[in-house]
Amino acid sequence: MIRTVATKPYPDQKPGTSGLRKKVPVFQQEHYAENFIQSIFDALEGFKGKTLVIGGDGRFYNREVIQKAIAMAAANGFGKVMVGQGGILSTPAASHVIRKYKTFGGIILSASHNPGGPHEDFGIKYNAGNGGPAPEKLTDAIFEKTKAIASFKIADIGPIDIDKIGTVEAGGMTVEIIDPVTDYAELMESLFDFDAIRANFKYGFRMRFDAMHAVTGPYAKEILERRLGAPNGTCRNFKPLPDFGGHHPDPNLVHAKHLYDEMMGPDAPDFGAASDGDGDRNLIIGKGIFVTPSDSVAMLAANAHLAPGYKQGLKGIARSMPTSGAADRVAEKLGVGIYETPTGWKFFGNLLDADMATICGEESAGTGSNHVREKDGLWAVLLWLNILAVRGESAKQVVTEHWATYGRNYYSRHDYEEVETERANALVDELRAKLGSLPGTSVRGMTIASADDFAYHDPVDGSVSKNQGIRVLFEGGSRVVFRLSGTGTSGATIRVYIERYEPDKSRHDLDTQVALADLIAAADDIADIKSRTGRNKPSVIT
Ligand code: VG1
Ligand code: CO
């Protein structure tokens, strides 16, 4: 039976950088999740009888919302849903399933790298038929629907057993529970030189993969240990837990510090990696060397031809605006296009669909390619493994040689988390107001060449996205960028991105924070961060 249930709008369902993210208790309000899911359906057209993919990162409240989404898909007229077993599908795996089975789209339940649990974060996002996050036009339309919603439709089908692989009929719709790993593992096998990687492991190459008790555990176990023969124990924290073991599943130098310490220690294995809550981010640390994500994109792009899936070369490279310019130098050398987009993977979709870019990356530990329409943590790890196996070199050798060839873009991001929203907004508003007066002035002995609020003109569909981050460029190419996070769930997070290019090989082994010290001080002078936030240092430095 299909029920139409009366409901009232919630005013706060505007999707952020990557879907709607809120604390679990917010999602547990009456009809909160239903409202958002119905608004997604209301913003879509032409899905009657078609297939919807549903999966999530396994966090607290995942199972409940999966049941709601299945029952609502049936009531709204989908012909079929494909659901990851146990409600699990990593973000890149969901993107692949949508593409492989040519489904109408998918609903991904995740708050990514944010913590999980009864008082932590939850999220819902919609991915379109190309496998990519809904573009801005669609997320805007969804938001409009949430503001006017009066009812939602749900089928009384009772809970579906999502742990049992197979197909059942429910509410006039087919429900297929699929293995979340197999399709994805096959895709990886088709892109990379598994023989070379396997041989490397066989001859003693050692790595550590930390799944942080998040979604990549089962994927990494299957691919690294079973298919590639890495020794048992290579994968750590591989059991997905609803609260990620009480940790932040954020693979950065703060939340994965144990891995960093191990990789810098005397018994370090050859290679260390980790992924986030929903499996789309990657942390790469070679023995004795951390690879900053902006560098990783550039290095993967420069060496991608060593993997079978990319041996024809790249069509182009795309990076988000705050990501360092390291990839630009690679694109220039390869003679391919380079595109600078706003933060968030949804902006890469058009470039990938139009075959203008093959590899994309963000400074926030997101790297991916045209194989899916999401960033992909394990993909980045496997491409690194492929490159190291074929080159027969260590990560450190690859990195230092890259810097010697292209120069080094010293890069760091400073985050001020949970700042009072009004204070953060005021800081950005004032910065915006003085942009015009900055060029020509000098800060800490450096002259500002230009300053603007980044606007993106999508070269494929002509759409324009404004206010995507404030850039201050100095003479000589250094820059600082300021923007507010669009993924947080409490207060505001101010992100400051700092970059300086160093061509001189003899100056490539400085400590990053030391190399950037003048710019870091200049950023504070320009935006007055410390006094305005009352913080004397950032909460997270990556
Ligand atoms: C952050 C990152 C951005 C990334 C987004 C989603 O957004 O900066 O690069 O695409 O998270 O990643 P923001 O608006 O907080 O800066 V994930 O792994 O959370 O889906
Ligand atoms: Co993520």
UniProtKB/TrEMBL annotation:
GO process annotations (BP): carbohydrate metabolic process
UniProt domain Alpha-D-phosphohexomutase alpha/beta/alpha: residue ranges: 13-150, 183-285, 294-406
Reaction catalysis annotation: alpha-D-glucose 1-phosphate = alpha-D-glucose 6-phosphate
Cofactors (names): Mg(2+)
Keyword Nucleotidyltransferase attributed: no
E.C. no: 5.4.2.2
GO MF terms held by the record: magnesium ion binding; phosphoglucomutase activity
Top enzyme category: isomerase
GO cellular-component term (any): cytosol
Matches recorded under Pfam families: PGM1_C_vert_fung, PGM_PMM_I, PGM_PMM_II, PGM_PMM_III
Chain ranges passing through the membrane: none
Keywords: Isomerase, Magnesium, Metal-binding, Phosphoprotein
Family: Belongs to the phosphohexose mutase family.
Name this protein carries in UniProt: phosphoglucomutase (alpha-D-glucose-1,6-bisphosphate-dependent)
